[in-house]
Amino acid sequence: MLDSDNIEIHETAFVTSTFRATDVNLSKDIFAHLWSNIKTEKWTQEYLEKVSSEETFTHCLRNRYFLDSIKENIKTNAIEVLINFGAGFSMYPFLLDKKIINIEIYKLEVVEYKKSKID
Questions:
Q1: What CATH number did the domain enclosing 34 receive?
Q2: Where are the alpha helices (DSSP H) in 51-102?
Q3: Has residue 71 been placed in a domain?
Q4: Model confidence at 7: pLDDT above 60
Q5: Which domain holds residue 96?
Q6: Which of 10, 13, 77, 96 has its CA 20 to 30 A from that of 37?
């Protein structure tokens, strides 16, 4: 999966999870560190230098917003099913009540890799 120096679209899942791992208190993603590797660290550093040093904060905040919003909707609207389009290495199924049905939609390569790591 990580066999070239250039980042492929499905590999952005590694980068965004690495961003979330930088501040677990903010992101509330206690699993984000599972996806970090040498190439991801390189891509992340390059991205922060070329695009914005604030990206880690932005990704942590974004994850936290969605996690808090999902939890609130589950509580107030009795949501029973969560469908996550573009799931990447999102770990919502493991951060939410086990009674919630989670459907994750993403690139096959990432889904298979994620499954191999959490099984």
A1: 3.40.50.150
A2: 55-77, 92-95
A3: yes
A4: yes
A5: 9-118
A6: 96
Give the Cα separation of 42 and 62 in Å (integer).
22
34: in domain: yes
Rounded Cα distance, 81 and 49, in Å: 39
pLDDT tens for 36-95 read: 888 888 888 888 898 888 989 999 999 999 999 999 999 998 889 999 998 888 888 889
Q: Using the CB atoms, write b or e for 52-79: b if 16+ within 10 Å.
A: eeebbeebbeebbeebeebbeebeeeeb
Residue 93 CB partners (closer than 8 Å, separation 6+): 82, 100, 102, 104
Compute the C-alpha angle 66/16/88, nearest 5°: 70
Whole-Å CA distances, 4 to 40, 69, 73: 12, 37, 41
